Amino acid sequence: MKEGRCLALIGESGAGKSITALSLLRIVPPPGKITGGEVILDNRDLLKLGKEEMRLVRGEELALVFQDSLSTFNPVRTVGGHICETINAHRRLPNGQAKEMALEKMADLGLPAGRVFRSFPFQLSGGMRQRAALAMALCLHPRILITDEATTSLDVTLQAQVLHYLKKHLEDCCMSILFITHDLAAAAAVADQVAVIYAGRIVEKGQLKKVFKQPLHPYTQALLRSHPSFCPGTLKPIQGSPPDLALLPEGCSFYPRCPEAAGICLSRVPEMLEVDSGRQVACHLVKSAILTKGEIAAS
Amino acid sequence: MTFLSGRNLGKSYFTSKGLWHKEEIRAVYDVSLDLDLENARGAGSRSGNTGLVGESGSGKSTLARLISRLEKPTTGSLRFKDEAIGDLPEKMLLPFRRQVQVIFQDAAASLNPRHTVEKILSEPLRNFFPGMKRKERLERITEIMGQVGLSPDHFERFPHEFSGGQKRRLAIARAVIINPDLLICDEVTSGLDVSLQGQLLNLFLELGDRFGVHYLLVSHDLPAVRYLCRRVLVMYAGRIVEDFPAAEMAASIHPYTRALLESEPSLDGSFSPRFLPGEPPDPSAYPTGCPFHPRCSEKKAVCSEQAPIFKKVADNHGTACHLT
């Protein structure tokens, strides 16, 4: 992820989008465990940090907003209380300054700050509550904001509101956003980079405009063909359902649903291949297509 | 003969506020609509399909429950093929129920967890075709399961053995097995993955072509409505504010409809930060005059004083707005 940019992570449910977010923050619920790899933030491996150091990273540098804003908040405490608690957990501020920060952030997000500060979560409408959750995540000016399906359950008008404020923050605060969603249209509205995840692996990555205009991986192509906004005429949705992660097929995990699967797809897992600058695809077919193109050019 | 028509339909709920005071929540009020299916026959596969859109709390679901007679309207009249059904007792509604079926958003919750697929699917047949023999029923069930894309071998399974998408297919199968004319779908595609959503929308089209089922799609998903429907009804604060053909989205007049269309994220990444300010109104205290005027950018003096009347502006286009 680059500074000041928004990366959209898209995929079906069960593809591993949320677990990716939770792993970045090291809050994967047991029995889940991070078994390998590294999370590098400014040359620091977050997986090697101690408990207390990690606590400081959460909220201060990485913040997360969940889909269900009602369960984000404790129902017997006010919204203001939540936001002040977040601030006080990280900074020692003189009396009242935390409240000022919270009010300021809420006003930034277009909320009637005074009223929302005193309200209990259930007294707010869905759109306001989601923005209050956003205020809580943004109150310490994190470097990276992760939104896990934050706009999915909202109406179009409220979704537009939240997307607008996200975009505004992206421009004003030099923050990065990891925008996790299965809504392709919402992703297209805010993100400039996109990563498509299938069965726990990223299968295509690149600039959003290029990927949506000319998807290379058969899964991305099929995903775009399933959406009425991207596919004029009759939809051609992907058949079947995502694989059971406990019984992943050998080889490429998409081959049972892939219309173009060939012999090699059944036996070997495709590795990530850089096609263009910043554009990566994990597919045997794309690889062989490029190789033949190269051979023709060479001859 | 109109298939289903409502005149000045209204539904209010009462909540008690304190010991003596009651508060009226007007979920739907003064809604008149006609669903004409006869003219739609033979006029292409999507004609006769109507979309009902609006924000949450605008009364879409309540209206769907009213016209499917799951709730009795508080005011107004509901007619099914020229017969008033607004007040009929449940027993007399059998012919209506045979032609108008409903699917709910939460398919899993609408299937009895202790019933097998066979039992779930044979119940509507037993209800509406009491003379049918078991063998005939089984044949029909096998046929319908194949048509909605479920394996007919899964007869003996229980709902929990199916995935989310399959449960929805099962709920659809149960609704279309008696061959209804109108299927009311309450947010059936919301909260689903794109791939599943696409599969369901195509299944709806296919069933429409094969059985002549028409749909009333209650949804806040504009692309889905545009894909499946020819006519769109827009609801705001318990009223229908615009009724227009889906192909002419650009010709919409009401400022709320336009705001709704503009709120939709654009696909090329050039998302314009135009969105509707404010919150939907509180159904226990609608603003005077036009309920949309506090959020409307083009309001005039008359908007806060008088409620606009629903007017036709073209043959198949009507709106309730003072600006027209």
Structure overview:
The complex is a heterodimer of chains A (299) and B (324). By secondary structure, chain A is an alpha/beta fold. Chain A has two domains: 6-191, P-loop containing nucleotide triphosphate hydrolases (Rossmann fold), CATH 3.40.50; 211-243 and 250-298, no CATH class. Chain A is built from 13 helices and ten strands. In chain A, the strands form two sheets. In chain A, strands 4-5-6-1-7-8-10-9 form an eight-stranded mixed β-sheet, sandwiched between helices. The model of chain A has no long low-confidence stretch (mean pLDDT 86). Chain B is α/β, with parallel strands linked by helices. Chain B has a single domain, classed as P-loop containing nucleotide triphosphate hydrolases (Rossmann fold, 3-Layer(aba) Sandwich). Chain B is built from eight helices and twelve strands. In chain B, a hairpin with a 3-residue loop joins strand 1 (4-17) and strand 2 (21-35). The mean pLDDT of chain B is 85. Chains A and B meet through helix 7, helix 8, helix 9, helix 10 and helix 11 of A and helix 6, helix 7 and helix 8 of B.
